[in-house]
Amino acid sequence: MRRHELIFRLCRVPVEAAVVFGAFYAGRQIRLVTDLIPGVQLPIQRITESQLFFFAASGAAMYVLISFLRGAYRISYDDEWGIEGFLKTVSISFSWFLYYLELAYLGTGYLTPVEIPRLIIFFALALSVLGVSSVRFAFSSIRSALLRGGCFPARKILVLSGGDQTEVLSEIRENPGYRIVGFANSKPTEISYFGNKAKVIEACRNREFEEIVSLDSDFSKADLEEIFDVARTYGIAYRYADRFLLSESRKTEVTFLSGVPLVEVVSIGL
Predict the structure, then answer these.
(1) What is the spatial distance between Cα 247 and Cα 229, in angstroms, rounded to a whole number?
(2) Tens digit of pLDDT for each residue in 140-161?
(3) At CA 23, angle to CA 125 and CA 144, rounded to 5?
(4) How far is CA 102 from its chain centroid?
(5) Under DSSP, is residue 31 helix (H, G, I), strand (E, B) or coil?
(6) CB within 8 A of 87, min separation 6: which ones?
(7) Domain ranges in the chain?
(8) pLDDT tens sequence across 29-60
(9) Contact 117/45 with Cβ under 8 angstroms?
(10) Which residues pair with 213 in a beta bridge?
(11) Interatomic CA distance for residues 27 and 49, integer angstroms
(12) With contact defined as beta carbons under 8 Å apart, do 159 and 215 qualify?
């Protein structure tokens, strides 16, 4: 795990919590002026500072918790912001809104003696989506700029490939967060040949790279299983295209590498 990736994730947590916290106060100020409902003027409902602080703090804590459970703070080396990131933020925000709305009103009389005006929660939702999306876009942009400037080391990847997956490889090469150290195959290839199975296993033990991506090598399934077992032992991540399956008993999930969907084997180094 690269230290800068962990730092970026840890820094995002308090910033996003502060954004959601502030969204409640901004929502309260909007509600004091208008309800934003055309042709309707709802009675203004007031709430004290201490009561609002409780709702804002609990809302921020719940937002961070749901984001964590939904994988928003997972360490990722493919953290380019895009439409998928925005949609995930929207999804997390709506999940938070529904859970918080239910908790806020079912907990009235138990957690707090008063109800928070519903429109404040609606305004907090809209402002949180905009604010958190902006934070995540900013962090992603700063990270990419620092990687391109050489301030942080790129993640070293060994590709198990004969070199035919040109489109996938070009996507990986264009991502500043990754650096391909070579291509492994049972037979030598024309492009940056790294070595055969024995060389790969030795390199895993020496931790010469941090991730293996299996695309179109001519290794047998037994060879791939052996490489994976060694990689798992030394804490090296392993991802592969879905047509190069390992044992079905492996726990896997689909992840993206420079926008390319790959199957990642979920494992813990020994």
Answers:
(1) 11
(2) 888 878 877 777 778 888 888 8
(3) 85
(4) 27
(5) helix
(6) none
(7) 3-148, 155-265
(8) 888 777 655 555 555 667 788 888 989 999 99
(9) yes
(10) 159, 239
(11) 13
(12) yes
Residue 15, helix vs strand vs coil: helix
Can you name the residues that pair with 239 across neighbouring β-strands? Answer: 213, 264
Contact 124, 24 (CB under 8 A): yes
Q: Supply the pTM of this predicted model.
A: 0.69
Report the alpha-carbon distance of residue 225 to residue 233 in Å, rounded: 12
Report d(CA 111, CA 113) in Å as an integer.
7
Q: Which of 265, 256, 246 is nearest to 76 (CA)?
A: 256
Task: Measure the CA–CA gap between 24 and 115, rounded to whole angstroms.
Answer: 14
Question: Does an H or E element contain 162, and which?
Answer: none
* Locus of tokens 């005006």: 117
Q: Which CATH superfamily is domain 155-265 in?
A: NAD(P)-binding Rossmann-like Domain (3.40.50.720)
Partner residues linked to 195 by β-bridges: 184
Give the C-alpha separation, 235 to 268, whole Å: 6
